[in-house]
Amino acid sequence: MKLPLIAANWKMHKNRKEAREFCRAVIEGLPSRDLQHILLAPPFTCLETVVEAVAATPILVASQNCHGETHGAFTGEVSAPMLADLKVEWALLGHSERRHVFGESDELVAKRLEGALKQGLKVILCVGERLEEREAGQTEAVVARQLQPLENLRDLWQNIVLAYEPVWAIGTGRVATTEQIAQVHRFIRAAHGPIPVLYGGSVNPGNIGEIMRLPEVDGALIGGAALDSGKFQAMVAESLKAKGGSEHP
Ligand code: PGA
225 alpha carbon to ligand 1 midpoint, in Å? Predict the structure, then answer.
């Protein structure tokens, strides 16, 4: 995996045809060395299609969630071995929509994290505070609580990327200021230094350059603006310009 990592979270968007078209446009549109900085997280129904479409490239593919158990009576869920069967090596976990729309607790996210990592998946763990938590001065306490499960998993830290996504900045067009981003990323680094930290929340082609110029930021997790292949390519190019590429072991 190469930093900066530019990750597209497609959420509940795109069918297989649209997924193929997106991949083709990005593969044809960017220099091949840039592709090693890309991760795509399509919905479950497009995972196999995307894995096939990017098979000849270094583009990484992630599911948007994963259960902690290998199998069982968990209607609606998929497991790490099922993802491995599709050659999917990464999963997003703890996305704020999973936590706050679908009610996944810190405990549940912790179980998913431990299970997924122990079964060999690499994980982008999302953390971030809600607006009322920020306004109450609880941002660092919330992020620390969400990162607590990492303490028992130190031997697997090399398979983790973190994404700081303030809930109030996701899908709202309200991006955090560079000071707010730098502050939380520094806080995370102080405790979890070796783990890369992406920023997410209303990242777009107009603001990604200044966010990526922050030395504390190792990449971006992008929703809405990453659905369009042209905008996504522009954001990858802008990020690499801001950072230059660097390798993560
Ligand atoms: P957004 O979503 O870029 O649309 O704000 C980011 C995310 O949810 O990961």
Answer: 8
